[in-house]
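Reviewers asked in the last cycle whether our approach scales beyond single polypeptides. To address this, we selected a multi-component target totalling 231 residues and predicted its structure end to end. The input consisted of the following lines:
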Amino acid sequence: QSVLTQPPSVSAAPGQKVTISCSGSSSNIGNNYVSWYQQLPGTAPKLLIYDNNKRPSGIPDRFSGSKSGTSATLGITGLQTGDEADYYCGTWDSSLSALVFGGGTKLTVL
Amino acid sequence: QVQLVESGGGVVQPGRSLRLSCAASGFTFSSYGMHWVRQAPGKGLEWVAVIWYDGSNKYYADSVKGRFTISRDNSKNTLYLQMNSLRAEDTAVYYCARVDEAAAALAIGVWGQGTTVTVSS
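The resulting structure, written as structure tokens, was:
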């Protein structure tokens, strides 16, 4: 079982908006910054959001992140078929002294 | 450009050892913390270990503690993962990854393409 909890799957139509939740505890999300990663089929993961809500250079503003308490959320607007991927949240867990990931959420753009 | 290239994967019998390498280029390797992250077939990401930029600190996932050792040679721009007493559940794609220069909480900004380790008799 993953330390961070994500829904296994989400889906939405092209052009619509979707959110992916990530739930943790005070030892991880509650006291550390959250990052989000996108893994397209057959490829290595890619950093999508860091420090809860910042986007690396080259990541479109259709992707956004937020954090409240011990939960974080990834939002994607204007969905495209190319957004179909697995999405993972991650952060440092101060009690475990470990980087922890969510179990991943598979996004399907219908 | 920034690049991480893993090598050393392969098929190994349970109980045996394997050493993975990760050659870094395009950035000042000695300035960055480095991770190993693995992904079992059809499964999610699992963090394995991290090493500070100067090797002063190392942390491991409980699942590999005592069996795996992360190390680095900053003179060779290379990261290593020594894996001993391998088990079937260690079968995975192993990614070398660099801590992001702008992010906190040891977020990963750069990933290698991965090398596959299969533990099977």
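DSSP finds no helices and nine strands in chain A. We regard this as preliminary and will revisit it once experimental data from Aim 1 are available.
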